[in-house]
């Protein structure tokens, strides 16, 4: 966000009927700060400015807008309120109110929503403390990496307290895991990835229980191979039927073009002999006994050969 700047030189102008401007520059610690607004009020006792009406603060590629901005020159502390909006090359922040330290990029924000330029994640909080870099301490927080689509995200994590380091991971205390806006699992403490890039790791399991299959477990593991390909492998267990594994490899070969390879293997040794005969659905098969070992493999591909020909 707003980076380091010293403020040895100051100039304030009150425009007649237009925007007033305030400019402080230095070459010692990295750059100028420029503030514009409709009205400036300077208090020489506290060495501070109050800028109201379309206030805009610019430093390098970072722009803050708000209805009102108070600047403490000596401490280099800026307080903004009402429709606070901060945009920089890394992200986009909206808040009802915020206090920013121009020296170390730290801030305290109220009713804040934080995302990046691609809107690939959304972090919200009633009170957000921004630390150095992309680190946040959040009260009454909300986080999802489904920020690019409008409406309710597919999944999200909430918590009374959150510590989030974007690009790495986050923690949540006394929160919930939500699906389509509905809390489905209470999380007294949770660690979650806060990286919008794909990463390898275990996915959520699928669990079940039935008199026909027994206890069921599908536990997938995701492998982020590179930018254009990935794979998923999974253990598939049904305690009254089988144990085996599933695998799928996916490759993007161009815009709209892909190659997918699927495979599976099962050992049916958990079945009883009677089960192996009675569970056959199609009795017209040449061999109506379910074999001990079963497997399958198939693939799908799409390739745009020309504008009028798709294979």
Description of the molecule:
A hairpin with a 7-residue loop joins β2 (20-25) and β3. The radius of gyration is 29 Å and the shape is elongated. The chain has one helix at residues 273-278, and strands at 9-13, 20-25, 33-37, 39-43, 48-59, 62-72, 77-88, 91-101, 107-115, 122-130, 135-144, 155-165, 169-179, 182-193, 201-202, 206-210, 214-224, 229-238, 242-254, 257-267, 293-302, 304-306, 309-310. Residues 1-18 and 25-30 have low confidence and may be disordered. The two termini are 48 Å apart. It is mostly beta strands and 311 residues long. Strands 1, 2, 3, 4, 5, 6, 7, 8, 9, 10, 11, 12, 13 and 14 form a 14-stranded antiparallel β-sheet that branches. Strands 15, 16, 17, 18, 19, 20 and 21 form a seven-stranded antiparallel β-sheet that branches. A two-stranded antiparallel sheet has the order 22-23. The protein has three domains: 1-86, lipopolysaccharide transport protein A fold; 106-196, no CATH class; 201-310.
Name the descriptors.
mainly beta, seven-stranded antiparallel sheet, 3 domains, 311 residues, disordered N terminus, single chain, 14-stranded antiparallel sheet, lipopolysaccharide transport protein A fold, elongated
């Amino acid at each position: 966000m707003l980076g380091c700047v010293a403020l040895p030189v100051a100039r304030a102008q009150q425009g007649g009927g237009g925007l007033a401007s305030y400019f402080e520059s230095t070459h010692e610690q990295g750059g100028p700060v420029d503030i514009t607004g409709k009205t400036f009020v300077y208090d020489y006792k506290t060495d501070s400015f109050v800028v109201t009406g379309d206030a805009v603060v610019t430093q390098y590629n970072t722009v803050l807008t708000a209805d009102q901005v108070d600047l403490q020159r000596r401490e280099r502390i800026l307080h903004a309120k009402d429709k606070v909006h901060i945009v920089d090359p890394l992200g986009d922040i909206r808040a009802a109110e915020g206090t920013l330290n121009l020296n170390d990029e730290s801030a305290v924000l109220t009713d804040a929503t934080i995302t990046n330029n691609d809107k690939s994640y959304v972090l919200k909080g009633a009170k957000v403390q921004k630390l150095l870099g992309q680190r946040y301490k959040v009260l009454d927080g909300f986080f999802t990496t489904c920020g690019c689509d409008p409406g309710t995200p597919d999944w999200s994590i909430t918590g009374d307290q959150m510590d989030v380091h974007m690009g790495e991971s986050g923690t949540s205390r006394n929160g919930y895991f939500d699906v389509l806006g509905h809390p489905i699992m209470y999380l007294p403490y949770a660690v979650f990835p806060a990286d919008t890039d794909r990463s390898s790791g275990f996915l959520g399991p699928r669990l079940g229980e039935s008199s026909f299959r027994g206890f069921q477990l599908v536990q997938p593991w995701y492998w982020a191979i590179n930018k254009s390909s990935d794979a998923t492998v999974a253990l598939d267990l049904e305690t009254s039927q089988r144990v085996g594994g599933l695998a799928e490899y996916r490759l993007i070969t161009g815009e709209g073009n892909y190659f997918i390879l699927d495979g599976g293997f099962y050992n049916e040794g958990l079945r009883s002999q009677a089960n192996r005969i009675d569970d056959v659905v199609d009795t017209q098969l040449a061999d109506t006994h379910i074999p001990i070992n079963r497997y399958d493999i198939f693939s799908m591909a799409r390739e745009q050969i020309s504008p009028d020909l798709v294979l």
